[in-house]
Amino acid sequence: MFSKACEYGIKAAIFIAVNSSEHRRVSPKEISEEIDSPQAFTAKILQALVRNDIVQSVRGAHGGFEIEKDKIATTKLSQIVFAIDGDNIYKGCGLGLHTCDENHPCPVHDKFKVVREELREMLENTTLEQLALDIKSGVSFLKI
Amino acid sequence: MFSKACEYGIKAAIFIAVNSSEHRRVSPKEISEEIDSPQAFTAKILQALVRNDIVQSVRGAHGGFEIEKDKIATTKLSQIVFAIDGDNIYKGCGLGLHTCDENHPCPVHDKFKVVREELREMLENTTLEQLALDIKSGVSFLKI
DNA sequence: TTTATTTCGGATAAATTTATCCTATTTATA
DNA sequence: TATAAATAGGATAAATTTATCCGAAATAAA
Ligand code: FES
Ligand code: FES
């Protein structure tokens, strides 16, 4: 469904959000350990999130990654997915036609668009804050 | 969402179904032209569909691919997807945890499973026959 | 039985995704 | 100002997916 890069990106963002809400910056090392992902690869993905203004980075000693408090509440899952995987997952044709077009639909168009639309809404209606809250309370988990 | 192989497999199966319903066998060449896919790669995918008893092949002169009449009506999209991509798409964890487990959920589990379940139902409730019918009547298209 | 036609299947190559490594750059602090 | 700690980013490698090529095997028909 999502690429590995996107999975790591989502989990990393959640972990950073959890820590930022407690005013703690975290390193790629700590992040990759907590979300069970390859460290250097995760660092690359973090750079993409920084460039897309989803997380903030502070270089140098005592640096690390953080998310501004108000961004934790406003950042949607859709923004993270878009930053890493683009919007093909909730815009593209399920059977790979060049464009998903009502006037030139593929065989699964009508049925597929319902699922895709539900995915899009889910991604757009889910904030980092909601997800971070469940991690904090021990209801959900980032690894294993 | 689906792999290229799976996209080609679905489109190929639909094209074969359309032709089998008119008692015409088709070759990988014809199939790949009609669904706009690489021929040799498509041939490999067809072999997988044959091994999974979703399409039938007839070797030698006047051979080609076909689908038994009653199979056109009974074959579900889910069977094709399973034969090529496996069941991870509607069973696996959206964030890549080893298993999707109610008792050890990832942060998106509750929201994701709704989407995934809808996808699963869609795939299980869609038959080759329905899809082939729309192609025949010119309502849907296999390429461009 | 030979020939033409067609799928099967192994080997290989290209492209993309995933992952690692190493150095440069930035920053706090001693 | 020197040093240590930390992210940034380029180069490269490994793994997977996508794609191509070619000969073997099967089959119908001449
Ligand atoms: S055209 Fe294929 S999903 Fe819309
Ligand atoms: S645990 Fe991630 S989707 Fe169920």
From TrEMBL, chains A, B:
<dbReference type="GO" id="GO:0003700">
    <property type="term" value="F:DNA-binding transcription factor activity"/>
</dbReference>
<dbReference type="InterPro" id="IPR000944">
    <property type="entry name" value="Tscrpt_reg_Rrf2"/>
</dbReference>
<dbReference type="InterPro" id="IPR036390">
    <property type="entry name" value="WH_DNA-bd_sf"/>
</dbReference>
<dbReference type="InterPro" id="IPR036388">
    <property type="entry name" value="WH-like_DNA-bd_sf"/>
</dbReference>
<dbReference type="GO" id="GO:0005829">
    <property type="term" value="C:cytosol"/>
</dbReference>
<protein>
    <submittedName>
        <fullName>BadM/Rrf2 family transcriptional regulator</fullName>
    </submittedName>
</protein>
<dbReference type="Pfam" id="PF02082">
    <property type="entry name" value="Rrf2"/>
</dbReference>
